[in-house]
Structure formats: structure tokens, C-alpha cells
Design a protein that fits this description.
The structure holds two protein chains of two kinds. By secondary structure, chain A is of the alpha/beta class. In chain A, helix 5 (113-126) runs antiparallel to helix 6 (129-140) and helix 12 crosses helix 13. Chain A contains 15 helices and eleven strands. The longest helix of chain A has 16 residues, at 72-87. Chain B has two domains: 11-110 and 156-427, 3-Layer(aba) Sandwich (Peroxisomal Thiolase, Chain A, domain 1), CATH 3.40.47.10; 121-154, no CATH class. Helix content of chain B is 32%, strand content 18%. Chain B contains 13 helices and 16 strands. Classes of the chains: A alpha/beta, B alpha/beta.
Chain lengths: 410, 431
């Protein structure tokens, strides 16, 4: 890393999930461990899914023509991006928007189940894949649907709806997409390349085509709800959750010059990708990452917002790594936010950063459930939050956040 | 560090030390180059699947060398590895299986294709229940049988990046990038930035795409983006011609090894060219069209020049995005008039897509490799099928036959659906 680096501040948060929309709704939800889980066990049985709260999309996406061009995952992302821009005081400010760089973590869009049904029935009846696809697709597919499937069109729609135009980058690769996006944004600001970045991701979990992709390879939890730490006896798996999470990251001097208060400071974001050939690879990877960022930090009890998915191997190894933190005198107060909101894949790391910034912005951590063996109370004032991002099949990342004097939420 | 290892702004100079290319014209940079300067076309009638009834029946396809059955995942991976292997070998960097830097890769969408969905359907043999939207309950039941877990890589976005990383042993998290048809250029831009920030000394950049399948074709067809001029196939891609009516989908992979000049010199590697700068600007006008005033693509070009720290007067040649759609070529001409000014009539412009077709996600990387070859060989590959120049365009198109030219600095343009525009400035190797 360069020797002279610029502080990276979180100056805007846009968050929406099963818990509702906005910062206050999420603080209230995480302050009340007795509430929830907000999970639908019937709609996609045997898979529980955390559905998005009822939200009027026109509040951030007023034009019908824009809404029509998007599928749900894009609407969620565009909406959350709009919340973050408004929260940071950038929305409707053409001068700032033209200098705001966009970094998005994306999967891809949604298939039209009705079209797929027609093709699949013909395939079953005639046994000819190519013929039926060719006969049906040209009449049944909508051009707009293809645009809704393109990974980079979440970013494209954010540019169109909110006029964010400095640059636009989309990263892919399941949870690694979120790690890459946040890391790219932070590095560019630290190095003085840019001053303003809107970064985040979105997931619409309420899709059978998405469930199919993840059921292949057995990544989903096919049983009644259980918290992520309590799934190993039955083979583990993740419960998908719909969410949109965007953050406005800003160079400290830029934020100070325009007089905005920050939620938190991002001190470090580090990522890696273990081969995962042997048990212990993930734990070792996380341990090395932590060593890279903990060098200048005095050991102290630390808030850990874990993005653990519940998929067995990675979740067990992350738990072991978190146990190791205690031995390194960083007593962790762990909160697996995926237990409450579901696993949001590409959006998971941004969701974790948003929650960490919220907690630091008001100077108080989230409560733990009284009877929880893993998630212990934080016994000291909140000083730092570690966010973990362990991909359900690949990728490991950590972010370390600290407070900003005169935090955003008093 | 000696002065020449840094640019005028004190940033490390980033050079290319290895290149690899697979396109419908052939496997390997040399095979491609000889056919490029001969003015040949890689576009053919599609034989991979029956096209009867489709409006567009041509494409630039690549035949697998392993004989594996086609899937976008398998073929995109095969050609990415072939291009990367060529680039890594040429650069002589690292040792086999241990590349000393990160991977930046642009890959096509990960999705289950119809033949794969058909396998899941056949597993059950039944017909969808009424009310089972899309028959997905049936597919999920088949997936739960665990007999189809081999399909998982087709649906995982990180799978191509992950396989490439495992093979070449790149360091850290692989970065999978999607800026649509600008993606290939984005990989080089982001690698350049990483090296300038001092986070790595070398990087492997790859763009790959292999999505000539029925749904891929139908999707672009529905956007009215494809030419329907099917006969003869080699005449269909006509960038900057009056009769252009859409692009031709093609498959391809381009790879470059980039490293700091300091790193290359220290290990005695020969630089093949310099990544002088890059610029990007997002459009907020329309999902598939540029702002009518061209301001976003103009902005991307100007930001690339500014980042390269040169004036437009230093550009010797433009490797155009030049898709052969009426819209793109008109807007690119408009933007180049603005950026190059009077020189627009004198700076040779070519579109490799006339010969290769539009390799979509890979295009920016494929065209960066061809740009580097252009400077090394002192020959600009032609824009073929330029029989009827569009009289409304001002560009000096390298029409139909290759042109000898001393080229030191190239602007390479890539514009994507979704309004993502990336321009690279590439220069000849440092003297």
C-alpha cells in the first residue's frame, strides 16, 4: 500500500432487506434480537427464504418506464443506491453525481419462468432442446428481460435513474463480487485516485432459478429455519435473503470540505482466495488476512459482524478462526447478520459494512441473544468492528472499521 | 529508481510483456495476425445448432480443440486458458503454475443452458404441474438428487476465474469484471491501476466469451443489434459502411501479461508495448444507446488521453469499437470528430470486428492485443467490407486492405450496453 494514504469515510448508507428500508429500521431490528427471523418457510419449500419487506419502489424509481426495464434484483439495487445517495447528500446534486464513481457487486438477472416452462414442456414432450428453444424464445422473450439479466445493467440502471456517471464497474463471483467491489472502492480512495464512490450490491432471493443454481452442489439449507451457527448437524447450507446494500465512501478531506458527518472510517479491506483443498485452508487464510490488518491495532475486545453463510465447511472454519481471535486477545463479540437477514451472496459484504458503520456511527454495538452460545455481549465500549466475508465456495475477506469523531448518529 | 521507470507524474510505467489470442480467425497471435493483414473474415454460417427460422444465422464461432461438447462455460474457459498460456509463455514470467500477480478476468454470464436444463427435465421424465412456475419445482427436485452437481460450475459466476487461477497460480482474489462489451478493456485498466498503486508488480488480464448459442443469439436479435445479412457471412460485418445493419456475434479470448517496466527490466523481459493510460465514463442516457451528444464516449476518450498525459495530437491510430451497428458507428464518428478535431480525416481508424465479429465481453482484450501487434508490425489490419463508405462519416477508415504505417500510439475504444465506456491508450515499446 502507498505510504501516504487518504482516510476512507462512510458518509452514506442505503439498506433494504426483510427488516425494512433505511438505517433506523435496521438499527431497531438488530437492537432487538428477539425479533424475527423474518423468514418464509412455505413459499419456496423446502427452502426457507428471507423475503424483501414491502417497499414502494416508486419512491426511489419514480418513472414507470424505468421500472418496466428492470427485474426485481435491479430495482432493489437501484432503490438502495438511491437511499445511499440521499443519505450522503449527493442525490440531485449534478456536480457531485458527475464525480461519483460506481462500483457494483452483481450476479445476474432473473429468468422468465413462464417462458422457461414452455420450452421445458416442449423439451420433455419432443426431446429436442434446440428446436424448442428456437421456436419459442423469439416470440416469448422480451428484449427488456435480456437487459434485466445482464450483470452490468444494475450499474447501468443506477447511472440512468440516479445520474451517477464518473465511472462504472461491476464485479462478479458470488460473495467475492462484494469483496472485490468494496476493496476496489477503498483502494482507489486511499490512493487518491477518486474522492467519491457509491459501492454495493443487491440480491433478489425470491427466485426459483436462483435457488436451482445454488441447489446444484448443495449449497442451500433445506430445513426449517436455524441460525447459521446451528446448521452443521444437518449438513449446513445457506438461507437466501433479499437485500440491497449500498454505501457512499468518501475521501476524508472531501467529506470535511463539504461538511458532512461520517458514520465510520474504513481502516482496511483485505481479501484472498484459498484453494480450499484441505480442511483448515479457510481458517489459515482468514488468520493471515487478520495478521495483515491487525498489526497496528492494540488487542481489545472487538465487534465482529460475521457474514457466515451457514454452508458447513466455510462456516465451521470461520467459527474456528473467530475462536482464535480470543487467543490473540481480540475477544470477539460475534453477530452473524445472515442469521437475521439471510445470506445475500453478492450483497453480503456490503450489508456487513453498512451494519458496522451504523453501529460505529452511534457508538454502540448490537445486542446479543441472551441464550446464544456463540454470540456473546461486547463487554467494553465499541471501538472497532471487524466484518468477515467468507464465500460459500470461494473467497475470503475482512474489513476493519473504526469510529469518526462526532459520529453521524448522536 | 531511474527516471524512465516512472512517467512524468511519477507513476510506475506499465508495460505488456506477453500476449495471447484466440478468435474465429485462429488460435494464437501469429495465426490471427497473418489472416488479419490478409483481410480475411472469421464469420461463418452457424453449424453448432440448427438455425432454421432464426433471423440471424451467422456468427464467428470457435471449434473446441478438445472435442468437448459445447457449453459457454467450457469453451470460454478453454480459449481463456489458451490465450493466457500463450501470453504467459511469451512473457516468460514466473514458473509454471505460479504467476507472480493477480488475475483480472472478464467472462460471459454464468447460466444453465437448454441442453443442461433438459438433462434435469429428463431426470424426472414428467411434465410440469400446473402452477409450478416454469417447472422449477421439478428441476429443483432433480437437483436435490445430487446427480447433477457437475452442472454447478455453469451457474457459478466465479467458476471460470477460479479455474484459470488454479491453472496459472495467480495471487490473491481473482477479479471477475463485467462492464458488458467494455469488459476486456476494463481488465487492462484495472490491472494498470493496481500496478500504479504499487499493490502488485505484474498481473494477468483476460477477456473471454463464447456465447454463440440459441438464447444468446435470440437475445441480441430481439434488441435489434444483430445484422440479418446472412449471405454471404463474410460480408456481414461492415463497420462504418453505409449498408451496415448490425453486428455479428463472435467468440474469442485475448490475454495480456502486464507488469511494471521496472519488474520487466529486472528480469530481462522485453516489453511489447506500454499501457499509457485508460479512461472511463458512464452514460446515463439509455440502456443500449449513447447520449445523442456523445458526451459519455467523448468523456471516456478524453479521460484516457488525460490519464496517459498526452494530447489528442499524439494519437496515430484508432482501434475503433466499430461494431457495425448504425448507432454505434455514427456515435463513434461523432465522438472522434470532437476528440481529434481536424485530424479526424487523417488518423487511420480500423475495426477488427469487420473480420473477427464482435467478441462481446472479450472484445476489449482481443482488440488490445491486435493494437499491440499493429504497432510492432507497422501494419494496420483493414476494415473489410468497406465497399460503400458512409458519406456522413468523417473517419479515415483503413478500407479493405491492410495499410503500412508507423504507429506509436493507439486509442482503443470499447463501449458497452448499460453505458459503460472504456478507452485505452497503448503505446509502442519504450526505446
Amino acid at each position: 500500500m502507498p505510504s501516504k494514504s487518504t482516510d476512507v469515510w462512510v458518509t452514506g448508507i442505503g439498506l433494504m432487506s426483510a427488516a425494512g428500508e433505511g438505517t433506523a429500521a435496521h438499527l431497531a431490528f438488530f437492537d432487538d434480537p428477539g425479533r424475527g427471523p423474518l423468514v418464509d418457510e412455505a413459499g419456496f419449500a423446502p427452502y426457507p427464504v428471507h423475503r424483501m419487506a414491502e417497499i414502494d419502489m416508486t419512491r426511489q424509481i419514480p418513472k414507470k418506464s424505468d421500472l418496466k426495464q428492470m427485474e426485481t434484483w435491479q430495482r432493489i439495487g437501484v432503490y438502495a443506491a438511491g437511499l445511499a445517495l440521499a443519505d450522503a447528500g449527493i442525490a440531485q446534486n449534478p456536480e457531485l453525481l458527475s464525480r461519483t464513481h460506481l462500483v457494483v457487486a452483481a450476479g445476474s438477472g432473473e429468468r422468465d419462468a413462464a417462458v422457461d416452462a414452455k420450452v421445458l414442456d416442449t423439451i420433455a414432450a419432443l426431446g429436442d432442446t434446440q428446436f424448442s428453444a428456437k421456436e419459442i424464445l423469439p416470440t416469448a422473450l422480451r428484449p427488456t428481460l435480456f437487459l434485466a439479466q445482464l450483470s452490468n445493467l444494475l450499474a447501468g440502471n443506477i447511472s440512468i435513474v440516479h445520474n451517477v456517471t464518473a465511472s462504472s464497474r461491476t464485479f462478479m463471483g458470488e460473495e467475492m463480487a462484494g469483496l472485490s467491489a468494496v476493496e476496489n472502492a477503498v483502494r482507489r480512495i486511499s490512493a487518491g485516485q477518486t474522492e467519491l464512490v457509491l459501492v454495493g450490491g443487491a440480491l433478489n432471493a425470491e427466485r426459483k432459478d436462483l435457488l436451482l443454481g445454488y441447489e446444484l452442489g448443495r449449497n442451500l439449507w433445506p430445513h426449517p429455519y436455524a441460525p447459521v451457527w446451528n446448521r452443521n448437524d444437518q449438513g449446513g447450507g445457506f438461507i437466501p435473503g433479499s437485500a440491497g446494500a449500498f454505501l457512499v465512501l468518501e475521501a476524508r478531506p472531501h467529506a470535511e470540505a463539504r461538511g458532512v458527518r461520517a458514520y465510520a472510517r474504513i481502516d482496511a479491506v483485505v481479501t484472498d482466495r484459498a484453494e480450499r483443498n484441505e480442511s483448515g485452508d479457510i481458517r489459515a487464510s482468514l488468520s493471515q488476512l487478520f495478521t495483515r490488518i491487525a498489526g497496528n491495532v492494540a488487542p481489545t475486545p472487538i465487534g465482529v459482524l460475521s457474514g457466515a453463510s451457514g454452508v458447513q465447511g466455510p462456516t465451521e472454519e470461520e467459527q474456528a478462526f473467530l475462536g482464535d481471535l480470543g487467543a490473540r486477545d481480540f475477544t470477539p463479540a460475534v453477530r452473524a447478520f445472515g442469521s437475521r437477514l439471510g445470506h445475500t451472496v453478492e450483497a453480503q459484504f456490503p450489508v456487513g459494512l453498512a451494519l458496522a458503520a451504523l453501529a460505529l456511527g452511534r457508538g454502540r454495538y448490537f445486542a446479543s441473544a441472551d441464550n446464544d452460545a456463540v454470540e456473546q455481549p461486547l463487554k467494553t465500549p465499541l471501538q472497532r468492528v471487524l466484518v468477515t466475508g467468507v464465500g460459500h465456495w470461494r473467497g475470503e475477506g475482512l474489513a476493519l472499521l473504526g469510529p469518526v469523531d462526532g459520529g453521524r448518529i448522536g | 529508481m531511474s527516471a524512465e521507470l516512472r512517467d512524468r507524474r511519477g507513476r510506475p510505467v506499465v508495460v505488456v510483456t506477453g500476449m495471447g489470442l484466440v478468435t474465429p480467425l485462429g488460435w494464437g497471435a501469429a495465426a490471427n495476425w497473418s489472416r488479419l493483414i490478409a483481410g480475411e473474415s472469421g464469420i461463418n454460417s452457424i453449424t453448432r445448432f440448427p438455425t432454421m427460422g432464426l433471423k440471424t444465422t451467422i456468427a464467428g464461432t470457435i471449434q473446441s480443440q478438445t472435442g468437448a461438447p459445447y457449453s459457454a462455460f467450457a469453451l470460454a474457459l478453454e480459449i481463456a486458458e489458451a490465450a493466457a498460456d500463450e501470453a504467459v509463455r511469451q512473457s516468460g514470467i514466473g514458473v509454471t503454475g505460479r504467476f507472480p500477480g493477480p488475475l483480472f478476468i472478464a467472462t460471459p454470464p454464468s447460466e444453465l443452458e437448454w441442453p443442461q436444463l433438459a438433462r434435469l427435465v429428463a431426470a424426472d421424465g414428467g411434465v410440469a404441474d400446473p402452477g409450478d412456475d416454469g417447472g422449477y419445482q421439478r428441476l429443483l427436485a432433480a437437483a436435490r438428487s445430487r446427480r447433477f452437481d457437475d452442472l454447478r460450475p455453469h451457474a457459478a459466476f466465479a467458476s471460470i476465474a477460479d479455474a484459470v487461477q488454479t491453472r496459472f497460480g495467480t495471487i490473491g482474489e481473482p477479479l471477475s469484471i463485467c462492464t458488458a462489451c467494455a469488459s476486456g478493456a476494463s481488465t487492462i485498466q484495472m490491472a494498470m491501476e493496481t500496478l500504479r498503486r504499487g499493490e502488485a508488480e505484474a498481473a494477468l488480464c483476460i477477456g473471454t466469451d463464447a456465447t454463440v448459442h440459441p438464447e444468446g443469439l435470440v437475445r441480441f436479435s430481439l434488441l435489434s443489434a444483430l445484422t440479418t445479412r446472412n449471405d454471404p457471412p463474410e460480408k456481414a460485418s461492415r463497420p462504418f459502411a453505409k449498408s451496415r445493419d448490425g453486428f455479428v456475434i463472435a467468440e474469442g479470448a485475448g490475454a495480456v501479461v502486464v507488469e511494471t517496466l521496472e519488474h520487466a527490466r529486472a528480469r530481462g523481459a522485453k516489453p511489447l508495448g506500454v499501457v499509457l493510460g485508460a479512461g472511463e465514463k458512464a452514460d446515463c442516457y439509455h440502456r443500449t444507446r449513447s447520449k445523442p451528444d456523445g458526451s459519455a464516449i467523448i468523456g471516456a476518450m478524453q479521460k484516457a488521453l488525460a490519464d496517459a498525459d498526452i494530447s489528442a495530437g499524439a494519437i496515430d491510430h484508432v482501434n475503433a469499437h466499430g461494431t457495425s451497428t448504425p448507432e454505434n458507428d455514427k456515435m463513434e464518428d461523432l465522438a472522434l470528430r470532437h476528440v481529434l478535431g481536424e485530424r479526424v480525416r487523417d488518423v487511420p481508424v480500423t475495426s477488427n470486428k469487420s473480420q473477427v465479429g464482435h467478441t462481446l465481453i472479450a472484445a476489449g482484450a482481443v482488440e488490445a492485443v491486435i493494437s499491440l501487434l499493429t504497432m510492432r508490425e507497422g501494419v494496420i489490419p483493414p476494415t473489410i467490407n468497406h465497399d460503400d463508405p458512409d458519406p456522413d462519416l468523417a473517419l479515415d477508415v483503413v478500407a479493405n486492405t491492410a495499410r503500412r504505417a508507423s504507429v506509436r500510439t493507439i486509442l482503443s475504444n470499447s463501449f458497452g450496453f448499460g453505458g459503460q465506456n472504456v478507452c485505452l491508450v497503448l503505446a509502442a515499446e519504450p526505446s
